[in-house]
Amino acid sequence: MIHRNRSTASSGSGSRSRDDDELEGGALDLVPSATALDRRADGRRYELEYDPSADPASQAVVAAVAAFTETDPAALEPLHAAVDTDALDALFRPPTDASRRVAFRYGRLEITVGSPGTVTVTETTVETDG
């Protein structure tokens, strides 16, 4: 587990330095409520936790994808090309008592948004259009 912190943080495979977290931290600046993220040892899965009452789901998705792919968020393909971002935000906007889960493809990635406040990015082996 990597905790949102600019100093050295611990992960399952050892410690990560501030330099290792620079891009991840920059992407996470999009989602100030991000509290924890987890990069699986195989490097094909990434999970971000956030507070949906503070940040929209679509912003959390962009931050998670940018951190996972080590890409500047501004350089990513627009998220609205893969999903209706307004609908996604509305679906996960509090208050909601329902447990919700939405999954969609974003290039070569499978994105799963769940309640309360999780985004999972998984690398797939097949790229699909939109």
Automatic annotation (TrEMBL):
Residues 1-36 are annotated as: Disordered. Pfam families: HalOD1. Residues 54-123 form the Halobacterial output domain. InterPro entries: HalOD1. This is Halobacterial output domain-containing protein.
